[in-house]
Every structure is written in structure tokens, then in C-alpha cells.
From TrEMBL:
Biological classification of the source: Bacteria, Bacillati, Actinomycetota, Actinomycetes, Micrococcales
SUPFAM superfamilies documented for this protein: FKBP-like (SSF54534)
Isomerase recorded as keyword: yes
Entry's EC annotation: 5.2.1.8
Record-level Gene Ontology MF annotations: peptidyl-prolyl cis-trans isomerase activity
Family: Belongs to the FKBP-type PPIase family.
Start and end residues of each PPIase FKBP-type domain: 85-177, 232-320
Protein name per UniProt: Peptidyl-prolyl cis-trans isomerase
PROSITE patterns noted in UniProt: FKBP_PPIASE (PS50059), PROKAR_LIPOPROTEIN (PS51257)
Pfam families: FKBP_C (PF00254)
PANTHER family with a match to the protein in the record: 39 KDA FK506-BINDING NUCLEAR PROTEIN, FKBP-TYPE PEPTIDYL-PROLYL CIS-TRANS ISOMERASE FKPA
């Protein structure tokens, strides 16, 4: 597949994406100003069991309905409270509360969880945000959501969610993912574009007045001490992509809703080759020639011709 990295997301994240985040009035608020949500008959009816580091067993009598989103704390974590703008790694199971069928699960135990950013402009389900907003790290919470805070009135035909189906989430609030690469600064290498970082970590890439390399080139800008990225891993990252010939940014995560999780099995070859063997916490520049990028066809919609070399600056925030 020859796609732009921004178009590629792990299935666990894709299931959750839905624009909008509403809240209900409350005296207590959590991260991103979201009102803390009480438990209720529906969420308390969920039976959740299993080890803290593994996918839970979830049972309930269906159909299960709630008039408004309900959140019950299954296990209260001992970590800090989730805060506004935190990037939170989640493990979760998702069930159709009408049929009782499991729809999806992932990110439990040592598996890399789905990252969400606790920001007011977040584009994940309101029910998910409400489940996490007032939690502490290490917690497991159970959520029952009416359509308004999940798939909405349209439901989701592909996932067999009807317009009036409630949704059950069981969420592990695993850890806080760093917002930027936190490794040690490295000495810039000659011949590579230069990078200047804004206060929030967003890179500005300046292309040198030179011909583009004809081979794949990588340069470590910050060296992290985390786990090593392996072939086919899913990597949580911030990135910015620039066309060498024009210096124009053609795609980036910066200025959007936060880092993204990308499977290295689904990106252009040079992008994957440039990240495999790097370490979490690193910031890496990858210079990709056309044959390891978007090929002779390029990506005209992104301003990339078939002869264009492209440059990525990637903050490796988590991997697994």
C-alpha cells in the first residue's frame, strides 16, 4: 500500500473515531473541562472480571440501555489524575449493549494501546472521553453510552450498530504518552535538512540548496532510551512530511488532534525502513527517494510528483 501515513490508523482507533464531544453540567469537571459522570443502573449491571494487565471478561444481560452516559469505576488506579492535553494510552473492549456482541478489543497488557488526546477539540466518542476524563492512571472503568455519545442517530451499518443501540466500553487507562520526543539531542549531520522546533515541539524543516540524495538516508536528531521499533510494529508518533524539491509540508500530525498510531506494515517502504531499529523517545529524520516512497505515480493530490524525494521528521512516542 502506498498511502500517506496520516491516512493509516490501527483498527482499534478507527472504531472510535467520531467528531464531537458533548458534556453534561456538573459541579465536578475533569480533563478538557469534561463533566464527571456518575455510575448508574446500566453501568453497575456490567460484570467485569480478570487480571488488571489482561483483556477483561465482560458479561451483562442484553439489551442494556442508559438515558445518559454512565461510568462505573471497576478498579481505581494509583496514578495521577488524567489532565487536559494528556495523550492517554488506552486498552479497551467495545460491546453492542443491545445484542451483547463484542465489537472490538485491543491494547491490553503489553500490547500497545490506542492513544487519545484529552483536548476540547478531540474527535473520539464523547462516551470514551467521559470515561477517561475523571479517571486516574491505572484505572479500569466501565461505560454505558446511549447513541448520542457514541455512533449517533445514524448507527454504523458496517459494525451492525443500529440507530438506537447503546454501546458498552470497558477501558484500561494505561499510561501517559509523552507529547514529544524526549531523547537526548544529537549533533546534526551534514547534508541533511535543518530542523527548528517550536515551543510545542512542531518542526520547521529547511531543505538545503543541494540535490536530493538518491538513497534512503536517516539521521537521529534526538536519541531516546525506550524500546526498539521492530518490523511491522505499530508506532505512536508525531510527524511532518516535506517535499525536498519545494520545501512544502504535504502532511503532518502537528496542529491536529494529537499524535497518531501507524502500523509500519502499511506505510511506504522507506518510512518503515527508516524507523525500524530506532528507539522510543527518539526524533528521526528520514529522507526517502521516490522508489522507496510513492513511486513513479507520486501523490499528485499531496503535491508529490513521481520524481520527488520526501523528508519526514518523526517523534517516536510509543511502539509495540
Amino acid at each position: 500500500m502506498r498511502k500517506l501515513p496520516a491516512f493509516i490508523s490501527i483498527a482499534t482507533v478507527a472504531v472510535l473515531a467520531l467528531t464531537g464531544c458533548s458534556t453534561s453540567p456538573s459541579d465536578e469537571t475533569g480533563a478538557a473541562g469534561i463533566a464527571c459522570v456518575d455510575s448508574g443502573k446500566a453501568s453497575e449491571a456490567l460484570k467485569v472480571s480478570g487480571k488488571a494487565d489482561a483483556e477483561p471478561t465482560v458479561t451483562f444481560e442484553s439489551p442494556l440501555k442508559a438515558e445518559a452516559t454512565e461510568v462505573s469505576v471497576v478498579t481505581e488506579g494509583k496514578g495521577d489524575a488524567v489532565a487536559t492535553d494528556d495523550i492517554v494510552e488506552l486498552g479497551f473492549s467495545v460491546y453492542n449493549a443491545t445484542t451483547g456482541e463484542k465489537m472490538n478489543a485491543g491494547g491490553f497488557g503489553d500490547d500497545l494501546g490506542a492513544p487519545i488526546t484529552m483536548a476540547e477539540e478531540s474527535t473520539v466518542f464523547p462516551a470514551l472521553m467521559k470515561g477517561v476524563a475523571c479517571a486516574t492512571y491505572g484505572s479500569r472503568v466501565a461505560v454505558v453510552s446511549p447513541p448520542a455519545d457514541a455512533f449517533g442517530d445514524a448507527g454504523n451499518e458496517e459494525l451492525k450498530v443500529a440507530a438506537d443501540d447503546n454501546i458498552v466500553f470497558v477501558i484500561d487507562v494505561k499510561s501517559k504518552i509523552p507529547a514529544t520526543a524526549n531523547g537526548d539531542d544529537q549533533t546534526p549531520e551534514d547534508g541533511f535538512p535543518t530542523v527548528e522546533l517550536a515551543e510545542d515541539g512542531a518542526p520547521t524543516v529547511t531543505i538545503p540548496a543541494a540535490e536530493a540524495p538518491t538513497e534512503l538516508k536517516t539521521s537521529v536528531l534526538k536519541k531516546g532510551d525506550g524500546a526498539t521499533v521492530g518490523e511491522g510494529d505499530t508506532v505512536v508518533m508525531h510527524y511532518s512530511g516535506v517535499v525536498w524539491s519545494t520545501g512544502v509540508v504535504f502532511d503532518q500530525t502537528w496542529g491536529k488532534s494529537g499524535p497518531t498510531a501507524i502500523s509500519l506494515a502499511s506505510v511506504v517502504p522507506g518510512f518503515s525502513q527508516g524507523l525500524v531499529g530506532q528507539t522510543v523517545g527518539s526524533q528521526v529524520m528520514i529522507v526517502i527517494p521516490p522508489e522507496l516512497g510513492y513511486g513513479a505515480e507520486g501523490q499528485p493530490a499531496a503535491g508529490i510528483e513521481g520524481t520527488d524525494t520526501i523528508v519526514f521528521v518523526v517523534d517516536i512516542l510509543a511502539a509495540g
